[in-house]
Amino acid sequence: MDNNKLYVKNLTTGSMFTKIITFALPLAVIGILQQLFNAADVAVVGQFVGRDAMAAVGANSSIINLVVNLFVGISIGSNVVIANAVGKQDKKRAQDAAKTSILIALSGGVFVTLFGELLAPSIVTAMKVPSEIYPMALLYLRIYFAGMPVILLYNFEAAIFRGLSDSRTPLIVLTLSGVLNVCLNFVFVYYMKMGVDGVAIATVVSNLSSSVLLLMKLLGKNSPIDIRAGVISRKVIRKILVLGIPAGIQSGIFSVANIIIQAAINSLGGTVMAASSAAYNLEIFVYYILNSFAQTCTTFVGQNYGAGKIDRCRRALLTCILIDYAVTGTVVALILIFGNQILGLFNPDAEVISIGYIRLVYIFMSYIFTLPEAVIASYLNGYGKTLPPAALSVIGICATRLVWIFYVFPRHRSFDVIMMSYPISMFVTVLLMIGALIVIRPGVRVNRRKTL
After folding, report:
1. At what angle do helices 51-59 and 61-88 cross, to 10 degrees?
2. pLDDT digits (tens, 9 = 90+) for 184-196
3. Are 184 and 202 in contact (CB under 8 A)?
4. Is residue 2 part of a domain?
5. Range of 256's domain?
6. Is residue 452 part of a domain?
7. How far apart are CA 429 and CA 73, in angstroms?
8. Residue 46 pLDDT > 90
9. Burial degree of 205 (CB within 10 A; 0-12, 13-18, 19+)
């Protein structure tokens, strides 16, 4: 056996359709299970504590997603570097990148915890959370920030496994921790009579379990790479960050814009906040399905670019978009049919259900444009072209929504007007992303492979 060879599932040969489906679906389930941590928090406090507690948890969704998505985006740098190493069968490079990724995750988590705890009161105040909800929202955010090292560690570990062509191991681990999270929610809130602190602690503990299990898997004898044999070097750190920071900015842009939108929603009162929170926990499930094919495109392109199979990279782009539309469209149709009943599981209030359904309609309308935008951006990421998608996302998503919220919404203060910002901004962004694809043409201009 060649000790320098990477014995992992190869995405550079075989049926692309089958491999995309089998790789993407576990990623979709992983995203859904991650969101279930927060959805379970919202549902449990909504049923057993009250609407104010539900609004307090929901008010933090945007800021939490901003931080997590920023580092999930940075982890794309790890994914791309490792996938490229797999395509080239460069085991040493993969080991170095994996070990370095663990360091970045833990260092970033400690940094976020320290500054998050310091800035938490200012953050909740800036979110314009009503005074009666403020103490609970602050408590939930503080506990969540305390758990950031293990939360970020899991996400970087998952990126390592994606680069190694393994999307199932993170799924199995997250399933176990997801069940633990739900059980702890009921124990802390229903039996121990805790409030938002109970659901926050449950989320942190479940993330701790998932990160430890994945780390044990990476350190085990059956791991395809030995991260202990890897070397943490400035060169690898720089490459991961050069690729990952723009991708992190791109991921964070959605959250930055959503924080601004959430502040506008908060200004409409507790009922609208609760309705928006309930709908968000449905729409984000669909987004994770949509985005799973984008993540798959990154790994496919990263490996095939490393192997020099540029034609297969281009076919991956088109295949991911077509399958994504078919799968995501089916799920959207089902949720719209049963939307009122599902929203009622979060809160039985008729007004909350009605407003929540309005949000679902607008968001799903925007997904028509979000889907190709996400896959094209991920296609470019796979080639190491992470800066153009990030820059265009700032222009198309953040700038458009800022203009809408600060200039249009004050003149027409309604929930519908706020929601219109989503499809409009995504339409602008997908046009920009298609233009970038035409101009950059990575699959055409690559004449010589470069090591990522």
Report:
1. 40
2. 988 988 888 888 8
3. yes
4. no
5. 16-445
6. no
7. 18
8. no
9. middle
